[in-house]
Structure formats: C-alpha cells, structure tokens
Amino acid sequence: MTQKCVALFGRGDTPTDALREYCAFLGKALGAHDYRMEMTAVGWAERGWATELSDLQQRARDWRGVPVFLQYTALAWSERGFPGRVLRVIEILRTAGARVGIVFHDVEPYRGSRMIDRLRRQAQLRAMRALLRRADMAIFTVALDHVSWKPEPRDGVVFIPDGANFSDAMVSVETGREARVAHAGRTIAVYGVTGGENGRGEIRTIVAAVRDAAKTITGLRLVVLGRNSESSKQEFRHALLDSGVELHVLGVLPPERVAFELMRADMLLFVRGEISTRRGSAIAGISCGLPVICFAGAETAAPITEAGLALYAPENPGDLSRVLLTVLSDTRLREELAAKSRMAFETYFSWKAIAARYAEVLSQGSKR
To answer: Judging by beta carbons within 10 Å of its beta carbon (0-12, 13-18, 19+), is residue 134 exposed, middle or buried?
Structure first.
C-alpha cells in the first residue's frame, strides 16, 4: 500500500529552486519504497505570515500520522536570515499530529564578523537546535560529527548526503557514451558561480588556473553553466582573451541538459568552498563520473572522500594550477578518478541510494 509523505517548503528561490528539484527527484525515487511525496509551501513571502500560518493549520488537519519533511534553509524561512518563525510552523504540524521531519540543507549558521552577523548566527543556532528538539526525524546533509554545533545523535537523526538535481537515468552509461562521442578536446566544466564579490574572486581563481594550464595543454575548453553563469559571461570572456581557451557559457539549463553537458567534460572544477556532502553542484560532477578538482575543509568527510577528488590547497599560491595541469595531462589518472566517482555515485549519491536511506528512517519512525 502506498503511503503519503509531504515535503514542506518556505520561500522559493530563483531562477532555479534546488530544494524543490531535490524533493522532486527524491519523491520519484521513493516510489520504489511505496511512498508518494506531495510538495507544498508556506508562501509567507507572497501572502504574509498570518495568512499562510492560518492556511497551514487547515491543510495540516489531513496530515495526522503523515511524515512531513520541512526543508530548512535560513532564507527559506526569513527575509534576512533570522528564521525564528519557522518554529511556529513546527508547532502547527505537531499539534495536527503529523510526524515531523526536518531536512537541514543549511547545517551551519552564516558567517561574518559584524554585529548583525553575530546576532543572525545566534538566531540561526537557536532555531536549528529548537527544530531538532521538536522533530521526530531529522536529516543532516553533512556527517553529524562534522557539524560545528554538535547535534545530539538519537533515533531518527541521521546523515544522508545530498544528490544531484537530475535523475539517475540521465547519467546512465548509454547517455554518457552518447555525450562523449559528440565531444572533442579536453573540457573543464564549472557548474555554478557565486554572486557578488565572492563570485568575482571565484572567477579570478578559475581563470588564473585555466590560463596556466593553457600554456601547456592546447585546445582547452572551459564550459561554465548554472546559476550566475550568464551574468559572469563578460568577465570570463575578458579575462580569457588571448589565452587560447575556448569559452562556452551556457546559463541555467534544464536538468537533462546539465547532465549531458557535464558528461561531455573531462573534469569538474569546484572552487565554491570546501568539498562537502551538501554541495549539490559538486555532487553533480561526481554523478556524471567526473574527476572533481576541489579543496578540503571542515565538512570534508566520507563518503565524499571516496569519490574521484583531486585536492588542492587554496592557501598555497599556484597549487590549483599544479593540480589542474596534472589531471589534464595524465589520462590514466583521469580514468582512475572518474571510476571512483562513478562508484561513489552508485553507492552513496544516486537517488536510489538516497531514497533507500530515507525509507529506513521512515520505517524506523513508524515503529516508535
């Protein structure tokens, strides 16, 4: 008998909404475990908190005994990262008798040294700890012992890594073979660019390494796709003038095109922070069987370390260029790293594997 579960969102994101994509692919995979996922939102940003909380009370009457997974990021539940009102949402669900789950897509409070940053950080920590206390189930996308605020492990509180926002079928061996037949030359893929000054720093880092590699590797292609790629096009183009690098900026693409373009590449260059099990854009490269050039940090832990990672040290000038050139130049190394990524995908990061872990949590919760 098919059972219902609910994914509950706060404010949506644009131009793509990674949380809704995540739940859409997860929901489809949960069908193999006899769960049907419904998706609904508390649209406080459009209609106001009072109206939406009243509406939620009405909807929640039908959720007695139903698993409801609230998708948590600080900005999904607040205008400026002070997510205190999300606790009212949890109380409504608990009062209605739902089985409350929290999926922590943000596992850390925001950084910053200003007074407002410190206040925001305290508010986020209070909210996350309170959510965890009130939840029947909690999913962390980073291993619990790598979360700075040390959530207490208990039944129903588990670590499940993030997945790529495309289906397992889109990265099949047959699709990959078709993509690579159409590909000529060596291609470096960059999936997503951060906005603002941080993004400009990323672009400078990427361009410096790619220009260095182009001095040795001819016919190099750089493909930039995903969030903020279109707005950074001119900056990439200007910075790569006279480098000999063939630049392709593709913008935001539908999931099947993202998978296809990544599978045409020889590697993924990921400089948007440390490699982590919650970094969906990095996991997209792993899912497509790519070596991933990246750096490690506090969140870097198994199972992401079982993928085909080529690590560089960002504190060492020139180390990214060295690692990039090594991977570009060594065919056997690229094949070994690609094989490790494919194995890690099948074992940990495919929606089949992720849904199986969710089904375990749901099954355990139903027995309590």
So the answer is: middle
Cα–Cα distance between 269 and 288 in angstroms, integer?
13
Domains annotated for the chain, with CATH where assigned, are 3-163+350-367 (3.40.50.2000), 168-349 (3.40.50.2000)
Dump the DSSP string for 309-353: EEE--TTSTTHHHHHHHHHHH-HHHHHHHHHHHHHHIIIIISHHH
Average pLDDT over residues 221-239: 95
pLDDT above 70 for 287: yes
Tokens of residue 360, six digits: 């375990």
According to the model, what pLDDT value does residue 109 have? 95
Say what percent of the chain tops pLDDT 90.
88
Q: Determine the angle formed by the axes of helices 351-367 and 18-30, rounding to 10 degrees.
A: 70
Environment class of 300 (CB within 10 Å of its CB; exposed 0-12, middle 13-18, buried 19+) = buried
CB 312 within 8 A of CB 323: yes
Q: Which residue has the higher pLDDT, 311 or 368?
A: 311
- What is the rounded CA–CA span in Å between residue 43 and residue 46? 6
For 240-250, write each residue's pLDDT tens digit: 999 999 999 99
Q: Parallel, antiparallel, or unpaired for β 157-159 and 186-191?
A: unpaired
What count of residues does the chain have? 368
154's tokens: 């208990």
